[in-house]
Amino acid sequence: MAAPIAKVPVEERLFSLVLALLATETGLTKNEILSTVQGYRQRYKASGDNANLERQFERDKDDIRDLGVPLETIDSPGQVGNNQNLRYRIPRGAYELPGDISFSAEETTLLNLAAMVWREGSLSAESRRAVMKLRGLGIVSDEPVLGYAPRLRVRDAAFEPLRSALEKNAIVRFAYLKPGEGEARVREVAPLALVQHQGRWHLHALEPGTRLTKTFLLRRIVSQVTSTGATFAAPVGDQTAQALAELEEVWDSHTAEVEVTASSDAAARLAKRRGTEVVRDGVLRLHYSDANIFADELAGYGPEVLVLSPPVLRAAVRTRLSTTAETHG
Asked: Which residue has the higher pLDDT, 14 or 140?
């Protein structure tokens, strides 16, 4: 039997991807990334089906951009317009700190201690191996040394107990607060998959009572996750793929049109969201999964964004802005 493939933490995979895309000026094709970068290469099949891995890469690109990393898509030399062979890169100048910013020895020490969350403040052994392999493909690269840590996304408190329940096929119980409801409701579910979509963790689970599958946003679990002591037989099939497909369907079906101030932070960031379309000058059509979460994001841009549609999203943003104004007098 083949040895099981060791799981690579999401943060390590994203970090390795950033390092690889920083290491080349000409960019890397999707195939080069999947076959060489830590977190992808372990599951890459040289002459097989890599559809799931490609979908993972597409989600990772969105997560990296959400973190503020300037990931670019460029044409391969001599293949302008060939979308099948696009190249990806992170421009070094756009990612590094401005030249007029410097740190004292003490500040650098503290930042390097923070970078130890990644186990190293520079290239890990796996990342070095990836860079070496890229060079073996004839890709000229320089090893980037990061003197500061990327922003970290802390997993929700419910993540670890749910992951443990997944491994044990254990039925769990937790309180879940849906938007618009005044009180949380206790849910009892059989966890089927934990998936990350648009930078947020979701639980795909089966309700034993109704036999229906539902998806829960981990940030809305407002109590400890406890085991009921009961177990269940895991259903056949790729539950992770099913959960992501359902989330993608929701993402594709929900769109909003917003007016953005030219040359503003909102215009720059929202234009880079996956699936964004320019409706007309200054107006963008955006996809979203959850109206309340998206309203939080849009309200954060203040006067730089005006929601044109749908009405429910416009009202949600207005409510947040009104509440902020009242809170601050």
From this structure: 14
Q: Which residues contact 92 (CB under 8 A, 6 or more apart)?
A: 22, 25, 144
Which helix (H) or strand (E) is 115 found in, with range? helix 105-115
Q: What's the CA angle centered on 140, arms 136 and 141, to 5 degrees?
A: 100
- Give this prediction's pTM: 0.54
Q: Answer yes or no: are the C-beta atoms of 31 and 37 closer than 8 Å.
A: no
pLDDT at 150: 46
Tell me how far apart the alpha carbons of residues 89 and 108 are, in angstroms, rounded to a whole number.
27
Report how far residue 185's alpha carbon sits from residue 40's, in angstroms, rounded to the nearest whole number: 39
Q: How far apart are alpha carbons 324 and 287 in whole angstroms?
A: 25
CATH 2.30.30 positions along the chain are: 159-239
More confident residue, 256 or 76: 256
Write out the two tokens for 149.
């840590």
* Mean pLDDT on 29-46: 88
Please state whether beta strands 185-197 and 170-176 pair in parallel, antiparallel, or not at all (unpaired). antiparallel
pLDDT of residue 239: 87
Starting at the earlier edge strand, list the strands of the sheet with 226-231: 212-217, 200-207, 185-197, 170-176, 226-231
Mean of pLDDT over the chain: 81
Query: Is the CATH number 2.30.30 carried by domain 159-239?
Result: yes
- pLDDT over threshold 80, residue 100: no
Are 62 and 198 spatial neighbours (Cβ–Cβ below 8 Å)? yes
